[in-house]
């Protein structure tokens, strides 16, 4: 053990990788469906390793990784940020502001009553409100305090201690409140409310394994018999008869000749038609009525599958059903919609927003025309625009240092951390107007956010490890119960404010509460209990606001408590 301790102290970079590996292993463990996740797992792993090895931690490395993480988060949610401030998204946004503000005020009150130092108070915020990035902004704020270096180092270590104490209930308490407690307080049945909302949105539930016609595409060939209902009708009339199923005739073989299906072309007995549509519809609707044939030349139609970033004002803000019958969407199928990093359930009543990523499939010319009308095709790329990345973080950090926030008699710097987060938001938002600007592959963003935060938190844990037990005894049991209050107060206030002041739908309200706390697991718990994905529609407008405010609270609470 002494050899291992010496090795880890001599090679701190290797110690960090070990901690991350242990942290991810801890994060994967589930207890009754609840897990700590990789970030908190890395914190506990860092504290554990730090108990027996005083691994030196580089302040510059911590800041570098944390800024990468913040830019990645901002870049991811930027396309949805401005949309979150408009239309029906305003309710979840306002709810997120109320919840975040209530959490901050409660944390300040608890810190004052318990006499917590700035480090414990900051860890109370990050752990109880489940926003680990607040640890980074708080660390930066503490290091800027006019205090002796040893006091600043001790306060920074206290952040990790308080976060570890408060996070477990912060996460588990939120999940249980949203999935069990809140529905009981409102007197609702989650499954029933989800069904009502789905009907309003035009979502039709299907058996497991069956997907919507908007999301699948298949091409099959059928020979028309004399008694087939489509015989004697024009192509347009035949397609109109099955408009609800979105079946389209792509080609026709007549007497050995391939014909294009112009709208007025009359279908005749013996025609072999190539029909596109949802597989189950083709099998169940056409299968019993017509003979399916194998005709490779007839079916040899170039098909494209692309992802398109929605930027067009003509399409943004409209319901999906409003575009489904348009001429330019004939033979076009929508397989999925992503809003930020969350998949949105597809329905006729879904309102598309600027910044949505649409997954389209259909004949190549149709997809190409539609893509031009919708926005820009997002082709896979492996190149990162490091010029934009570097300048954005530099300028964002510079703005964060120069911009100050008045808090009472003090002026608190916005900090390089919050400035970088806002820079990421700006770059992400600009991509909705200029899709080729500042392109960063999804894989690179995922690495920046996952590794950046896990490594930062792991180093924070390593720093806190040697004094963890002493600091824990100093904080006392009051910190744990204070954290419970900080977790629950914004949820209770937000629940009643959202339901009785904002008049929000209960399912969207619970999703928005999860977004306000930036807790994806909370939204997933609501989805599981309601057996419906629709809670994500409340989550996506609230989560960008939650990230910005809760991350900023790390700076604010340090300034308030230290002042």
Could you characterize what this model shows?
The chain is α+β, with helices and mostly antiparallel strands and 563 residues long. It is built from 22 helices and twelve strands. The protein has helices spanning 2-10, 12-28, 37-52, 59-81, 90-114, 118-128, 133-143, 149-186, 190-201, 235-241, 279-286, 296-299, 320-324, 364-374, 386-402, 415-430, 442-464, 468-475, 477-501, 506-516, 520-530, 536-562; strands at 218-223, 248-254, 257-259, 272-277, 291-293, 303-310, 333-339, 342-344, 357-363, 375-377, 404-407, 410-413. The strands form three sheets. Strands 3-2-4-1-5 form a five-stranded antiparallel sheet. The protein has a five-stranded antiparallel sheet with strand order 8-7-9-6-10. A hairpin with a 2-residue loop joins strand 2 and strand 3 (257-259). Helix 3 runs parallel beside helix 17. The protein starts with a helix and ends with a helix. The model is unreliable at 206-215 (pLDDT under 50).
SSE arrangement:
Elements: H1 2-10, H2 12-28, H3 37-52, H4 59-81, H5 90-114, H6 118-128, H7 133-143, H8 149-186, H9 190-201, E1 218-223, H10 235-241, E2 248-254, E3 257-259, E4 272-277, H11 279-286, E5 291-293, H12 296-299, E6 303-310, H13 320-324, E7 333-339, E8 342-344, E9 357-363, H14 364-374, E10 375-377, H15 386-402, E11 404-407, E12 410-413, H16 415-430, H17 442-464, H18 468-475, H19 477-501, H20 506-516, H21 520-530, H22 536-562
Helix pairs in contact: 1-2, 2-3, 2-17, 3-17, 4-16, 4-17, 4-22, 5-6, 5-19, 5-20, 5-22, 6-7, 6-8, 6-19, 6-22, 7-8, 7-16, 7-22, 8-17, 8-18, 8-19, 8-20, 8-21, 15-16, 16-22, 19-20, 20-21, 20-22
């Amino acid at each position: 053990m002494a050899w291992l301790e010496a090795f880890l102290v001599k090679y701190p970079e290797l110690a960090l990788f070990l901690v991350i590996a242990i942290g991810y292993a801890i994060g994967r463990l589930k207890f009754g469906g609840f897990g700590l996740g990789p970030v908190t797992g890395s914190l506990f792993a860092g504290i554990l390793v730090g108990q027996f090895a005083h691994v030196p931690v580089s302040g510059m490395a911590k800041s570098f990784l944390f800024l990468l993480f913040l830019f990645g988060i901002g870049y991811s949610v930027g396309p949805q940020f401005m949309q979150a401030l408009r239309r029906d998204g305003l309710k979840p946004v306002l709810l997120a502001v109320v919840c975040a503000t209530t959490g901050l005020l409660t944390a300040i009150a608890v810190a004052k009553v318990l006499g917590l130092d700035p480090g414990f108070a900051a860890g109370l915020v990050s752990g109880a409100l489940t926003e680990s990035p607040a640890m980074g902004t708080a660390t930066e704020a503490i290091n800027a305090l006019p205090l002796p270096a040893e006091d600043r180092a001790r306060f920074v270590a206290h952040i990790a201690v308080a976060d570890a104490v408060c996070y477990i209930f912060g996460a588990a308490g939120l999940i249980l409140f949203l999935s069990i407690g809140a529905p009981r307080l409102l007197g609702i049945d989650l499954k029933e409310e989800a069904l009502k909302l789905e009907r309003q949105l035009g979502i039709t539930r299907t058996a497991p394994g069956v997907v919507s016609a908007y999301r699948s595409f298949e091409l099959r060939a059928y020979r028309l018999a004399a008694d087939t209902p489509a015989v004697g009708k024009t192509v347009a009339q035949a397609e109109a008869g099955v408009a609800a199923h979105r079946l389209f005739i792509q080609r026709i073989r007549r007497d050995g000749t391939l014909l294009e299906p112009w709208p007025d072309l009359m279908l005749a007995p013996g025609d072999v038609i190539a029909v596109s549509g949802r597989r189950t519809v083709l099998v169940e609707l056409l299968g019993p009525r017509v003979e399916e044939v194998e005709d490779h030349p007839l079916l040899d139609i170039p098909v494209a599958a692309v992802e398109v970033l929605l930027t067009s004002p003509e399409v943004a803000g409209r319901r999906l059903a409003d575009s489904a019958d348009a001429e330019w969407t004939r033979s076009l199928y929508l397989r999925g919609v992503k809003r930020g990093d969350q998949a949105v359930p597809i329905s006729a009543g879904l309102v598309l927003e600027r910044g949505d990523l649409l997954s389209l499939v259909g004949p190549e010319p149709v997809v190409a025309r539609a893509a031009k009308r919708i926005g820009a095709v997002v082709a896979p790329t492996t190149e990162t625009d490091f010029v934009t990345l570097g300048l954005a973080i530099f300028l964002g950090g510079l703005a964060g240092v120069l911009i100050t926030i008045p808090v009472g008699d003090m002026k608190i710097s916005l900090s390089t951390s919050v400035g970088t987060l806002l820079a990421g938001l700006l770059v992400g938002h600009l991509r909705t107007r200029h899709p080729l600007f500042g392109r960063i592959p999804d894989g690179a963003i995922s690495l920046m956010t996952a590794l950046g935060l896990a490594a930062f938190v792991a180093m924070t844990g390593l720093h806190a490890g040697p004094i963890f037990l002493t600091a824990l005894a100093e904080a006392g049991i009051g910190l744990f119960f204070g954290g419970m209050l900080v977790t629950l107060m914004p949820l209770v206030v937000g629940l009643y404010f959202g339901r009785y002041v904002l008049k929000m739908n209960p399912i969207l309200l619970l999703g928005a509460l999860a977004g306000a706390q930036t807790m994806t697991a909370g939204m997933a718990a609501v989805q599981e209990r309601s057996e419906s994905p629709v809670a994500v529609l409340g989550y996506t407008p609230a989560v960008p606001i939650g990230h910005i405010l809760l991350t900023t609270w790390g700076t604010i609470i340090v300034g308030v408590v230290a002042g």
